[in-house]
Batch of 2 targets.
Target 1
Amino acid sequence: MKHIPILLLTVVLSNFTPHLQAQNFSDKVAAAKLILLAAGYDIADTYYGNYAQDQYVYKYKKMYQGVDYAVMIISENGVYDADVYLTRGGSTVKSNTESRDEGATYIEYTPWLTSTYKIEAHNEDSYSYYSYQVAIIVGYQ
């Protein structure tokens, strides 16, 4: 399987989002990893952080030319809208900024150049200005 069909993963995420909202954070992260594994990805890394509304959490990841990557952002309950950005050299190469995603979003990317990329998770909107847990999950195939 070269890529997760975008429509399929969108349907899976939208169908599972209400269920993910009912779970605690660690269960949501485990469910997201299962989705990636079921789509044929191996889990490369999982990074954890905290962000309040309108804040970012970022990590750097070396990605290799020709390898397919999927990046999922999973937020603690209370985050209504999370965005993900993948940048290289200050330029955005891929993003997902759909609104009202209940704190779960993803992108897929196949680098044409081996390089270190910056993965940014953004808490666009949340219930309060409380600091929420977030996981950045990186899969590859």
Note: The radius of gyration is 14 Å.
Target 2
Amino acid sequence: MGPLSDRTVVLSIAVTLGVVFALVFWFARLNAPVESPFLWREAPAPGLPAPPPITQPKGTLL
């Protein structure tokens, strides 16, 4: 078998990289995370006491 042309080698490398990226993203989409994302502002759980209300400080700073 004779040597391959540069165009054939570059095309085969590009096709190989395209197939690898396609497979990676396809499997990543199939195996999506099953737990819900962490939310910063979640509601308190039922049955827990409510936090005390925030009051304004009394007096002066001087």
Note: The mean pLDDT is 81.
